[in-house]
């Protein structure tokens, strides 16, 4: 239950969010990014497949590739991105305050975040759900057998809230063991600080890679929540919101129409009107977004379509080995469906 004091604190946070939104609308995020020549993108502190620095310190992952795509659309150069690593707890304040231009960090779209926090979700770049991972020697095969378990979980996440709901609904008790970063959560689990680790299922596969012996851990079959993950911008800047939305939409549409980073130059001469519009050869082009006409071409040429990005970062050819599943295109049995470019 909320105390009067914490209620007052939330009101202050919410009104600060709206004040900074108003300030940013006046500047306009697009103008700010164009002036600086760089996009400031909030990412995680490190989650393989989504946003993670490689051995050379370069950021990689499906969420990082979205930042690159946005930079390619706006600045014509996917390398013009400044990455700001953020824990789950820090991420929304960083966006509200204007420290970052976009948050692209395995963030679940919820009503509260989309409204009270003064934010706008751009779309979904990965449909996920929360799961559990145990050490094999715990000897159980279902989450329903977890009564009394100690659970490693990260603070400031939907994960924490769903965990409480799930155990309460199933009349089970648990002991939360709470950490601030993904690295701390997985090493806590590895060191035996808890019986089970819970997060988004994709995150379980990612964190399993970091265990001393990944084969000692198994993911239980239950998915206890919906976690539609996607990039986020501030409310009150529709121009920027549109650019952020259509960058993701163009990556998904390009996959649907078979345009990728390898064939995009040839596709510039395609007679298919859908492809012409995706690449800005015809149709609405860039004017209504405030971008150059080749913005879609730059996204696909420099980064690629959604399917290419998925395969490279989290897909079956990546260390995470995740199949497309519900993240397949709508016409291939999945949920990925982008509104038309026309
Ligand atoms: N999707 C959930 C969970 C997101 C989350 O932050 N998960 C953790 C656990 S895997 C994470 O990504 N941590 C990375 C970090 O701490 O930087 C949410 O939006 O609340």
Automatic annotation (TrEMBL):
Pfam families: SBP_bac_3. It comes from the Bacteria. The keyword Signal applies. The keyword Transferase does not apply. This is Amino acid ABC transporter substrate-binding protein. It comes from Vibrio ponticus. Coiled coil: none annotated. One of its GO terms (biological process) is amino acid transport. Residues 38-282 form the Solute-binding protein family 3/N-terminal domain. InterPro entries: Bact_solute-bind_prot3, Solute-binding_3/MltF_N. Residues 1-25 form the signal peptide. Gene3D superfamilies: Periplasmic binding protein-like II. The lineage of its organism: Bacteria, Pseudomonadati, Pseudomonadota, Gammaproteobacteria, Vibrionales. Belongs to the bacterial solute-binding protein 3 family. Keywords: Signal, Transport.
């Amino acid at each position: 239950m909320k105390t009067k004091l914490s209620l007052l604190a939330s009101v202050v946070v919410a009104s600060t969010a709206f004040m900074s939104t108003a300030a940013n609308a006046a500047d306009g995020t697009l103008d700010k990014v164009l002036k600086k020549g760089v996009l400031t993108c909030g990412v995680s502190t490190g989650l393989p497949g989504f946003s993670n620095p490689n051995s050379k310190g370069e950021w990689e992952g499906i969420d990082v590739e979205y930042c690159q795509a946005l930079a390619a659309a706006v600045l014509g150069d996917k390398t013009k991105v400044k990455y700001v690593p953020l824990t789950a707890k820090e991420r929304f304040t960083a966006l509200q305050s204007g420290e970052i231009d976009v948050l692209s960090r395995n963030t679940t779209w919820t009503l509260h975040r989309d409204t009270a926090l003064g934010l706008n979700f751009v779309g979904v770049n990965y449909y996920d759900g929360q799961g559990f991972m145990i050490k094999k020697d715990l000897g159980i095969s279902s989450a329903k057998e977890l009564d009394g378990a100690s659970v490693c979980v990260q603070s400031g996440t939907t994960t924490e809230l769903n965990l409480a709901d799930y155990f309460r609904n199933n009349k089970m008790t648990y002991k939360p063991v709470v950490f601030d970063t993904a690295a701390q959560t997985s090493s806590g689990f590895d060191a035996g600080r808890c019986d089970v680790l819970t997060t988004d299922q994709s995150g379980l596969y990612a964190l399993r890679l970091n265990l001393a012996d990944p084969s000692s851990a198994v993911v239980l079959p239950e998915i206890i929540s919906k976690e539609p993950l996607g990039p986020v911008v501030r409310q009150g800047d529709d121009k920027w919101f549109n650019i952020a939305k259509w960058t993701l939409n163009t990556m998904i549409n390009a996959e649907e129409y078979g345009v990728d980073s390898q064939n995009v130059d040839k596709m510039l001469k395609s007679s298919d009107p859908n492809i012409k519009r995706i690449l800005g050869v015809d149709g609405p082009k860039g004017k209504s977004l405030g971008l150059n006409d080749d913005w879609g071409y730059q996204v696909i040429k420099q980064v690629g379509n959604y399917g290419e990005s998925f395969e490279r970062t989290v897909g079956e050819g990546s260390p995470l080995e995740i199949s497309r599943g519900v993240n397949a295109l709508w016409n291939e049995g999945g949920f990925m469906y982008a509104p038309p470019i026309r």
